[in-house]
Design brief:
Elements (H helix, E strand, L loop, with lengths): L1 H38 L4 H11 L1 H12 L4 H19 L1 H30 L10 E8 L10 H10 L3 E15 L5 E8 L1 H7 L5 E2 L14 E4 L1 H8 L9 E4 L2 E8 L13 E4 L15 E6 L5 H13 L8 H7 E9 H6 L2 H33 L1 H9 L4 H37 L14 H25 L3 H4 L14 H36 L10 E7 L7 H16 L4 E7 L10 E6 L2 E13 L3 H5 L3 E4 L11 E5 H7 L9 E3 L5 E7 L14 E5 L10 E8 L7 H11 L6 E5 H6 L2 H38 L1 H9 L4 H29 L1 H5 L10 H27 L3 H7 L1
Parallel strand pairs: 3-8, 5-7, 14-19, 16-18
Antiparallel strand pairs: 1-9, 1-10, 2-3, 2-6, 2-9, 4-7, 5-8, 6-7, 11-20, 11-21, 12-20, 13-14, 13-17, 15-18, 16-19, 17-18
């Protein structure tokens, strides 16, 4: 049976070759017969009609003969595909334009779909993940939520009625020693109840027991799958081995599966929190809460209950002032997935909308090209219909061409998407989570296939719609060999597509213009320090070997050694780098205002910090070494202006809980939490004074006289000479710190992608307008010749021919402006000090596209003005 089928298949290919040869013979006889009718006195048009009628049955006879053969549908498909391939090969310009346009549109969308799928659509790996939520305390007037105290956590755990289970977690950096060179490990601190909330078991070993999660319990650790593979070679005998984490020896008891990444995907090792069940500590700690909802609870009802519990926090020892000044009294309960995705959702959806507009522009462009091409081929379609080709045959041939183009564009789009996903992941800001899961998966493949097939069907329907009736094609016979303009219906459809394409492009141009203005304003913000030639790195001193006093001495010695290095101008240490959202707030009393106190951002720094950061001294003096021995204070200029606007702040006193310190210096304001956050009043305390929390985790800043990269080896050497087990964390320049800050990185990412999308839209729009106008001019050659022969000027020809074709462009610009205004709220959350209705952008965006459209029209217009009237009339 297979052999017989293959024989019929081979025969069908031979018959196709014979059919092609027969077609050539038929057309030759048609020409000869038409010439005979002309000799008999017929006009050329009547002669062609008579020839078509004489041979009208040939195609019908051939069709009936083909249907009698084996596998008729396969014969038909093969014949149409071969004919379509030959046609597209001859029309290389059209084919290349169509495939490239589809490749760009489909590729950009497929790449973005892969990112959106990984970040927004793909579920978290935890069982019944929709029940897992996070609970946060909202701060007054701040974007960053407050964390729970140990007593507050116990209170919520015992009093809530919305959660099945509730646990605490935190993340930090700790030096890790064992099975290789010392490294800085990302550590997740998790209570056993937090592990229970997530309901995931290790792939090797076990989770910590209840005894191991108590104070003074056995010290254990659970490894991430990545650390197990990278540092221990996936050794199954790793259980029972020990590692040193922050100078504490811990036994490895388990390895988590590769998809487990809580609280973030980069965690290397998890350890128990070992909180005291009877703790009454009410200090806001570094712990977050994760919970699993009861079956009858929702995030909204849990938020309401948590708000009521916040009002009862004074029952466990929290000061009433905590509720009035630090906390807003509200709680946020959201699903874990929402918490992980965060504000990146709006960013990704805006970018996804932008690349979707690129795809729509590409499809509108191609639709216009197909319509124009269909008008040029209308006489050919009329000939085929007159020869007996059915409507199905004509539509099938058009579908074959469109599907071949769509498949080629889809394949090219996948190649672009594969490269585009890597580019998107590389450009995406650190705030976008779950990028490690971005790949070309089945969803992306299915999306690409669906878009390609849909595009093929749509493009096939455009010329096929014209061919839906043989009677409709007959008038096109009169256009064979003659120039003519398209009918009113075709002009309206073509104009509508051009207007749509222009409107979408204008929306993209305006959106990208808004992001560029927002980016320029954000980068123009003065951070309050000089970031040029400044390198920074983090240090975490082990609590087992360093007390606060030892840490202060270590930092002072390190700063002195760093200052002595060649090309180092100054160096200092701080507990909080600027333009980072997480900062320590402390309540301070002010001697001149005994009736009240306030909460400020307070950072502990060493002498040399102001010089290393290039922070100017507004009044008073800079920090000296002797300031460590006595409690002296430095404040920012805005804080001084807030309380001592009519006098000098130098010499005034302020401090925590009646511990007074003299203000000896006022310095310029830094942008503490980010470039997009208003200037806040801050205070600086010398590291080592009695009033000092834990200063074991710090950032070192070093100002150099030239390139910062060349200084890294000596920095490592100097730290190693003081403590060889201390790795350097997050080594980077301050310019990188600014560039990677949340607002800047998000704005940069959105601006870059929108500018790329707008550029592609301008390019596609320009090509589409050029093609339409060039075609319109070519079809009106005789009209232009007649007008110029009758004395029309170049300006009149321009306004009559090209001006009419630019009318859809003007309509599209108006529609684009209206759509951009209506969709302005979508962009508002991504902008900085820029109105979504910014007049300059709303004017310059359409102007840019109008210039592109005019430039696209210039070439065919110039060609039209050079037409020789005599030649134009002869062509008629």
């Amino acid at each position: 049976m297979l052999r017989a089928w293959l024989h019929r298949l081979a025969s069908s290919f031979r018959r196709q070759r014979i059919d092609a040869e027969l077609d050539e013979e038929i057309h030759t006889h048609l020409e000869l017969l038409a010439e005979d009718f002309e000799r008999q006195g017929m006009t050329p048009e009547d002669a062609r009609r008579a020839a078509y009628r004489s041979f009208g049955g040939v195609e019908q006879v051939r069709e009936r003969h083909r249907e009698a053969r084996g596998i008729p549908w396969l014969d038909s498909i093969q014949r149409d595909v071969r004919l379509a391939a030959r046609t597209l090969a001859k029309e290389r310009g059209f084919t290349l334009t169509a495939v490239l346009t589809l490749t760009i549109g489909i590729g950009a969308n497929a790449a973005m779909v892969s990112v959106v799928d990984a970040v927004l659509l793909r579920p978290l790996p935890y069982p019944e993940e929709e029940e897992v939520v996070t609970l946060a305390l909202q701060r007054s007037g701040m974007r960053v939520p407050a964390r729970f105290s140990e007593a507050g956590y116990r209170f919520f755990r015992e009093e809530n009625r919305s959660f099945q289970e509730l646990g605490v977690y935190a993340s930090t950096q700790r030096p890790l020693i064992g099975s290789g060179e010392p490294m800085q490990a990302s550590v997740g601190l998790m209570s056993n109840s937090a592990f229970a909330v997530l309901s995931m078991s290790p792939v090797l070993g076990r989770l910590p027991s209840d005894d191991e999660d108590l104070p003074a319990g056995p010290t254990v650790a659970v490894l991430s799958h990545d650390l197990w593979s990278r540092r221990f070679g996936s050794d199954p005998e790793v259980l029972g081995r020990t590692i040193e984490l922050n100078d504490t020896t811990r036994e490895v008891i388990g390895v988590m599966p590769p998809q487990f990444g809580f609280p973030s995907q980069g965690i290397d090792v998890w350890v128990p929190t070992q909180l005291d069940p009877s703790s009454t500590d009410v200090r806001l700690s570094s712990y977050h809460l994760v919970a699993r909802l009861r079956s009858d609870a929702t995030p909204e009802s849990a938020s309401s209950e948590a708000g009521r519990l916040i009002q009862r926090l004074p029952e466990v020892g929290h000061a009433q002032g905590l509720l009035s000044s630090v906390l807003s009294g509200e709680a946020s309960v959201i699903t874990l997935k929402e918490d992980v995705v965060g504000e990146s959702r709006s960013l990704l959806l805006v970018v996804m909308g932008a690349v979707s507009l690129v795809l729509l522009i590409a499809l509108a462009n191609l639709s216009t090209l197909f319509i124009v091409r269909g008008e040029e081929r209308a006489p050919q379609q009329a000939v085929r219909a007159t020869l007996g080709a059915s409507r199905t045959r004509l539509a099938q041939h058009a579908l074959s061409e469109a599907l071949l183009l769509a498949i080629a564009g889809g394949v090219g789009g996948l190649l672009v998407a594969a490269a585009g996903t890597r580019g998107l992941v590389g450009l995406a800001p650190p705030s976008v989570p779950r990028l490690d899961g971005v790949n070309i998966n089945r969803l992306v493949l299915g999306y690409t296939l669906a878009v390609s097939l849909a595009a093929g069907v749509v493009f096939a329907l455009l010329p096929a719609w014209r061919a839906r009736s043989t009677r409709r094609l007959l008038p096109d016979l009169s256009r064979v060999g003659r120039n003519a303009t398209a009918g009113p219906g075709r002009l309206r459809l073509r104009g509508a597509l051009v207007s749509t394409e222009v409107a979408l492009a204008v929306m993209l141009v305006i959106g990208s213009g808004l992001m560029v203005r927002s980016y320029s304003k954000l980068r123009a913000v003065d951070p309050g320090f000089d970031s040029e030639n400044v390198i920074t790195f983090g240090l975490i001193l082990p609590a087992t070997r360093y007390e606060n006093e030892d840490a202060a001495e270590f930092y002072l010695r390190l700063v002195e050694r760093l200052r002595a290095l060649p090309r180092v101008e100054s160096a200092g240490v701080t507990t909080g780098l600027p333009v980072t959202p997480v900062q320590a707030n402390y309540r301070m009393d002010i001697e001149d205002f005994p009736d009240g106190s306030d909460v400020f951002v307070v950072r502990w720094v060493t002498p040399g910090y102001f010089e290393a950061m290039g922070i100017p001294i507004a009044s008073g003096r800079t920090m000296l070494t002797e300031d460590v021995e006595e409690f002296r204070l430095f404040i920012g200029a805005s804080l001084a202006e807030q309380y001592w606007s009519t006098s000098s702040a130098v010499g005034k006193r302020m401090g925590p809980g009646g511990i007074w310190a003299d203000i000896v210096g006022v310095v310029g304001d830094e942008r503490i939490r980010g470039l997009d956050v208003p200037v806040e009043g801050g205070a600086y305390v010398p590291i080592g004074v009695p009033f000092s929390p834990s200063v074991l985790s710090v950032s070192v800043v070093v100002r150099t006289s030239d390139a910062v990269a060349d200084l890294l080896p000596p920095l490592r050497r100097e730290v190693g000479l003081l403590d060889p087990e201390l790795p350097l964390i997050n080594v980077r320049s301050m310019e990188e710190v600014i560039a990677n800050s949340y607002a800047v990185s998000r704005t940069t990412f959105a601006a870059l992608l929108l500018v790329v999308a707008a550029t592609v839209a301008l390019l596609l729009g320009g090509i589409g307008i050029y093609g339409v106008i060039a075609y319109a001019v070519s079809r009106r050659t005789s009209e232009i010749g007649i007008r110029m022969a009758l004395g029309a000027t170049a300006a009149q020809v321009w306004s009559r021919v090209v001006g009419a074709e630019l009318l859809p462009v003007a309509i599209g610009i108006g529609l684009g402006l209206a759509a951009a205004a209506l969709g302005s709220r979508v962009m508002a959350s991504l902008l900085f000090e820029t109105s979504p209705l910014d007049p300059a952008t709303l004017f310059s965006g359409p102007l840019a596209f109008l210039l592109v459209a005019t430039a696209a029209a210039a070439v065919p217009a110039a060609r039209a003005l050079r037409i020789d009237p005599v030649s134009a009339l002869r062509s008629e």
